[in-house]
Amino acid sequence: MKSMSVSEMSRRHPLLADRTAGVLLHPTSLPAIDGAVGIGDLGPTARQFTEWVAAAGLQRWQVLPIGPVGDGDSPYSALSSFAIEPMLVSIADLAEDGYLPDSAVQCSGEDEKADNRGRAGWRRARKWKRPRLESAFKTFCTRRGTLGIRGRNYVDFEVRQAGWLRAWCRYAAGQAQTMRACAECERDPNYHAFLQFILDRQWGRLRRHASERGVHLIGDIPIFCAPDSADVESRPELFRLDRAGRPTMLTGVPPPSEPDEEMSKVWGATAVEEGQLWGHPHYKWAAHRKEGWAWWQDRVRTTLERFDLARIDHFVGFHNLYEIPRNATDLRAGHWRRTPGAELLASLTGVIGPLPFIAEDLGDRVEPVNRLRDQFGIIGMRSLQLAFFGTPSADAELPHNHPRECVVYPGGHDNDTVVGWYRSIKAQTRRRFIDYAGPSAASDPAGAMIRLAFTSPAGTAIVQMQDLLRLGKGARMNHPGDPKGNWCWRMRRDDTTSKLAKSIKTLAASSERVV
Predict the structure, then answer these.
(1) What is the DSSP string of 345-373?
(2) Is the dihedral of CA 316, 318, 320, 321 positive or negative?
(3) Which residues pair with 246 in a beta bridge?
(4) What is the rounded distance in angstroms from the CA atom of residue 152 to the CA atom of residue 128?
(5) How far apart are CA 209 and CA 311, in angstroms?
(6) Does the pLDDT of residue 365 top 90, yes or no?
(7) DSSP for 283-325, written as a single string
């Protein structure tokens, strides 16, 4: 690979240069329309949402990782860095494409009632979708030879995704072999290839629909891989494992030397006061370097086939990572180790050009990480929920201190909603917020926080859908450090009103965020 100068590497991706605004909403949180039982999917509901996003004057739709969910149905414990979660398949689109009868979209009145309660139901989704996906696969197998262009499209898909597809299909089929409740076709690698083919088609349709309306999709790349993932099983030489395939060092973060009670209101008491043991295996960086960073290049290339931009979770990991011995009983037993992030990012730049990345650098904005981020034209993040604690680090999150080259969020998926945050913070912090945002912040804290984000100098402002809807703590997406009860918030069918879209568009226009 040709070496690049600093000026060449620091070129910023054009989509990071616009002054824009957007919404953060995972597809599983989309409402129930046209047979989207249990969780939202990639079908009509998602396409309708892009239309609402455009009507609200927004040009960005950010989601969480879309890989096959792991423990606790967490998108951040995905079982593959390449495959898409099978439950995101739209049954309505399968029926429209002739793989299922129209009657397959119908669901029971009880399902309809449950699906409009504001909570996702993964168990309900799997129970309802699996027999329909099996029927669609059987139709595909019997008609594949007569489908003409569809047949050729399937072969093209297999060739295009050959680097990961078969490994994922073997893994998924192998997982099914150990589960008695799985249907016979789930033990067939070809079934899983079919599902990924359908997901690829449906995602492509969604992306085109969004693009035609001026909406760009933002994905999310977790820096680590789950220990029980297809990535680790198929490429063990790229991870630090013992002979039995167990991680020798685990990922996580140590507890702070001085726990901050206020900060625990934002991230959760367990995560802040006790540290976190994530449990992923660390990378064997020398092996990645030896193969010319090919695995990472394939991973990023696959992501950018689906998204226009991508958030890099835990960006500090490209500078250094915290290693915890597998058998350690105290998270303080770990140590920080430098990582070859500059080499990796340079290799990606050489393959794809300016990097369309947003760095999740909250709490890690130290000078070496800043230099690495800026060297490659990547922009960072600012969180308004961290801005009113009266400390030097909090001051950097205040809107008047935001650089042009960042994305501002009132809060993210690991935080409480703004309404929940406001009700939990101390009186002194609340007073700072009201003094800064104005008296109306007391009666409408979410509205005030949204206005601060939109009027910030930051190039992009992204707001959680829960905050646009002014929802309380019950709509929180994730509680870091708590493995249960997360990733379950879901919109109701009548949440995306034209009145709400009009009010957002007015604010976007007045803050010059409408292109």
Answers:
(1) HHHHHHHHSS--EEE--TT---HHHHHHH
(2) positive
(3) none
(4) 30
(5) 22
(6) no
(7) B-HHHHHHTTTHHHHHHHHHHHHH-SEEEETTGGGGTEEEEEE
A 10 A CB-CB count for 5 gives 7
SS (H, E, C) 489-511: ECCCCCCCCHHHHHHHHHHHHHC
Identity of the residue numbered 295: W
178: left (phi over 0), alpha (psi -120 to 50) or beta: alpha
Give the pLDDT confidence of 479-513 residue by residue, as tens digits.
987 888 899 999 999 999 999 999 999 999 999 99
- Edge-to-edge strand ranges of the sheet holding 20-24: 357-359, 309-312, 216-221, 60-62, 20-24, 460-464, 406-409, 380-383
Cα–Cα distance, 412 to 427 (Å, whole number): 23
Q: Kindly state the average pLDDT of the residues 25-45.
A: 93
How many residues in total does the chain contain?
A: 515
pLDDT, tens digit, 9 for 90 and up, residues 282-308: 999 999 999 999 999 999 999 999 999
Q: Are 391 and 342 in contact (CB under 8 A)?
A: no
pTM: 0.94
Residues marked active site are found at 313, 360, 414
Amino acid residing at 198: I
Contact at 8 Å (CB) between 48 and 433? no
Which amino acid is residue 224, in one-letter code?
F
Q: Is 470 exposed, middle or buried (0-12, 13-18, 19+ CB in 10 A)?
A: middle
| CA–CA dist 361, 16 (Å, integer) | 16
Distances (CA, A) of 307 to 79, 312, 412: 20, 13, 19
